[in-house]
Amino acid sequence: MNKNEKDLSQEEDSQVQKETTRRGFLSTMGKIAVAAGLLGSGAGVEALSGCARESTPKSRLSASTAKMIVPPGKWDKYYGLWSGGPTGELRILGLPSMRELLRIPVFNTNTGIGYGPTGDNHSAKMLEDAGGYGLGDVHHPHFSFTKGDFDGRYAYAHDKANGRIARIRLDYFMTDAITSIPNVPAVHGLYPQRYPKTGYVFAASEFETPMPNDGRDIVPTGNNAAQTKNYWTLISAVDGETMKVKWQVMVDGNQDNMDTDYKGLYCMATCYNSSKGWNVPTMTKPPVMWAVFVNISRVEAAVKAGKYKTIGDSPVPVLDGRHGSNLTTYIPVEKDPHGISCTPDGKYAVANGKLAPKVTVIDLKKVGDVFEGKIKPKDAVAAILTVGVGPLHTVYDGRGNGYTTLFVDSQMVKWNIEDAIKAYNGDKKVKPIRQKLDVHYQPGHAAATQENTIHPTGEWLISLNKFSKDRFLPVGPRFPENDQLIDISGKKMVLTADNPVYIEPHQADIALVDRLKYIKQIFNPKYFANHVESGTENVKRVGPHRVIVRLTGVAPILTPVYFHCKEGDLITIIYSNNDTVENLSHGFLMTLHNVNLNINPGETKEITFLADRAGVHWYYCTIFCHALHLEMRGRMIVERVPGYKSRPIHSNRLKGEPSWNGLFKDFPGVGKA
Ligand code: RUQ
Ligand code: CUA
User: Fold this and answer.
1) Residue 29: pLDDT above 50?
2) Which atom of ligand 2 is nearest the CA belonging to 553?
3) Which pTM does this prediction carry?
4) What is the pLDDT of residue 57?
5) Residue nearest to atom 3 of ligand 1 (CA)
6) Do 353 and 379 form a contact (C-beta atoms < 8 A)?
7) What is the dihedral of CA 501, 502, 503, 509, to 10 degrees?
8) pLDDT-derived band of residue 33, with 50, 70 and 90 as boundaries?
9) In angstroms, what is the span from residue 506 Cα to ligand 1's centroid?
10) Helix (H) or strand (E) holding 630
11) Residue 198 carries which DSSP code?
12) Rounded distance, CA 631 to CA 268, Å?
């Protein structure tokens, strides 16, 4: 044993000791849930006491740790697509190193990439057209598919906050479309069609409302079921190419997570509030809820046959898929199912019980029989397996095993799918649970390498933990989350690394690097209709208060280095980066005007702002592009206009807002230390 190994093992021993107390909190949480009757049967209690600790063999730990290290200058084997939760962005990571490579602004403003109102007109307009919201809440980003594998064309992400879906093109890694989903306030589950390709992007709305939600159907009386009687949710299908909403299916209950099969027959969603409750007791009351399957070809036929209505002023066909419809089927699942995911062999969908310590394995072939009317919905259930407390999401290794996150138990449980089916059918000899691994802490989603494709690689698993507690240096009240890397290539899962991550990655897709095959690092200048050719830069007054400035940057020369205008002029900057060398981006920041462009090689960007203050204002490049980068700057010279009320320097742009110091005046430390 060398020194490092020894250190590691000592650390590990002391860690095991400490964890006994740390974990106290978790079992307390679980027991409270049991006491409240939320966990259903006694199986919850059994699972609570039955989680044996398992320490990682030292030799294995070092081997896995060595495997995750990507030496300086070397590349990762996988791209990770991470969601950014309420930051409204997506993130690109390299795996297994877990190094963050890029943040892609989607529903947010980003002043580094230059996206949104301070960044460029194009994205600002896109956000404006999509409702003008200043935020988004991204949970489920996914790569597009062709024939069941990632095809590298697009990524899609939803905004739970404002019911929108965005597309990110994966040649330039930029958001190129945002679609508002009509008739619903919030979409949560999102999944692209896997076969034959994407195709549709499906989105399930979570918050049930009256339809249309325009003030009618509001029951004025208190807390009773009459209130929500006329509330509904919809599963929407968006065309991933045109980004148009094609149809919506009205379903019972409120939907949570989504998935699609590997044959292009169905999309499916879990429902955690089948009785349309409005508070915790009423939402969690029914012992059995469901996974709803939507029969895609039947819906398409019904749309063609005109068997739909529309809601409010939306022209999108809405079909009735509530109980009794032949467009959907409702497969019973215990208890408040959360995640649902199809096995990479295409045979099963696994729904995770959340408030039941169980996963339900649904046979997709039998779902077909249910649609044919040959069997009852409950007969499509191939297995129910007790896995532990708080199962949320299951992913796969392609070797027949599922890995389920246990939120309350703070564990990852590995179990065998075929063995679970055998056990369910009465075979007492098989033990489907292969291993339980402690994770730190409270995992939500899991992600595994290529697991949601026909080519899972079964190498790495990420436990996306919602709490990190004591795992990292304290940084005030907002903790990072902890995405733990787990080696699943061997028989046993091996916890390999802790990775602090910024708020709040819900879910991730992990693709082999060759799947993202269209990546470009230099723009073709011809792509931009407003491209400014070097030598043609100019300043033009096009109206009484309207000036257009066409600029170019070729490191370290910015042209022009000054322009004149007048107070009250609306200025449009059109800036072409005419460097054609990869990795040579320029910035354009106009001091004191809330404007910063980021212009990549070959790219042209445009931004419009008001020159509302006489004086000399320097603009400068914000990206260290050259030894003479600091010299890459120029002046906007704004002439005084008699009678124009100039904005005073350093005035608060958000007039009437209390200042930060004003808000915190009762806390003497703030603003003084
Ligand atoms: S849901 S923690 Cu928003 Cu993805 Cu399961
Ligand atoms: Cu261009 Cu710095």
Assistant:
1) no
2) 1
3) 0.89
4) 56
5) 139
6) no
7) -50
8) very low
9) 6
10) none
11) S
12) 57
Q: What is the pLDDT of residue 660?
A: 55
Please give the distance of CA 151 from its chain centroid, rounded to a whole number.
19
How many CB atoms lie under 10 A from the CB of residue 102?
11
471 to 28, 68, 481, 483: CA distances (angstroms) = 20, 19, 10, 11
pLDDT value of position 58: 56
Q: Which amino acid is at 373?
A: G
In ligand 1, the atom with minimum distance to the C-alpha of 188 is 3
C-alpha pair distances (Å), 349 with each of 163, 313, 402: 26, 36, 11
Phi, psi dihedrals of residue 29, rounded to the nearest 5°: -55, -45
Helix (H) or strand (E) holding 558, with range, is strand 557-559
User: Does ligand 1 come within 6 angstroms of the Cβ of 160?
Assistant: no
pLDDT 10s digits, 170-225: 999 999 999 999 999 889 999 999 999 999 999 999 999 999 999 887 877 777 77
DSSP 274: T
Residues in contact with ligand 2 (CB, 6 Å cut-off): 553, 555, 586, 621, 623-626, 629, 632
Could you say which ligand is closest to the alpha carbon of residue 597?
A: 2
User: At 34, which amino acid appears?
Assistant: V
Asked if 400 contacts 417 with a C-beta cutoff of 8 angstroms, the reply is yes
| Per-position b or e across 168-200, b if 16+ CB within 10 A of its CB | bebbbbbbebbbbbbbbbbbbbbbbbbbebbbb
Residue 209 carries which side chain, given as an amino acid letter?
T
**Residue whose structure tokens are 């939803």:** 158
| 515 Ramachandran zone, left/alpha/beta (phi>0; psi -120 to 50) | alpha
Which tokens go with 189? Answer: 């589950």
**Structural contact between residues 157 and 92, judged by C-beta atoms closer than 8 angstroms:** no
Q: Is the CB of 392 under 6 A from ligand 1?
A: yes
Mean pLDDT of the chain: 89
Burial letters 501-536, b for 16+ CB under 10 A, else e: bbebbbbbbbbbeebbeeeeebbebeebeebbeeee
Token pair belonging to 575: 């800036």
**Cα–Cα dist 402/344, whole Å:** 10
Contact 205, 236 (CB under 8 A): yes
Where residue 4 falls among pLDDT bands split at 50, 70, 90? very low
- Select from 190, 393, 466 the residue to mutate for testing ligand 1; criterion: most ligand atoms less than 8 Å from CB: 393
Q: Could you report the per-residue pLDDT of 509-556, keeping only the tens digit for each?
A: 999 999 999 999 999 998 899 999 999 999 999 999 999 999 999 999
CA distance 64 to 93: 19
The encoded tokens of residue 135 equal 């935020």
Query: Amino acid identity, residue 125?
Result: K
What is the rounded distance in angstroms from the CA atom of residue 474 to the CA atom of residue 55?
A: 26
338: closest CA among 406, 272, 253?
Answer: 272
